[in-house]
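Lay summary. Proteins are chains of building blocks that fold into shapes, and those shapes determine what they do. In this project we predict the shape from the chain. Here is one chain we studied, written as its sequence of building blocks.
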Amino acid sequence: MEDDPNSETKISPCGKENLTNQAITFCNYFENKGIKSGVYASKDWFNILIDVSLLEKYKIWLAEWYVSAPTVSYKIDLWQYTNKEKVNGVYSPKYRL
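And here is the predicted shape, written in a compact code that computers can read:
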């Protein structure tokens, strides 16, 4: 979950409780089908816009760039440390990691 700074539509005004419930509904949908699920968001989203304590049973993928280690106190399963990495064979900027 993240805002697109160039978008006229913003998700963040929906409210913390609503966004957290949407994330839980999304994860439960897939979990009920036997598919592990989780939430991807930036540190700011997890700290301000989502109640990450209610997502403990799902995978947490943290996007926190340009630090040598994650700086959050909650459990994370994946850490995205940059937005500049490239994968050989993938040439579209749309798929930048």
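What the prediction tells us: The CA atoms of residues 88 and 96 lie 11 Å apart.
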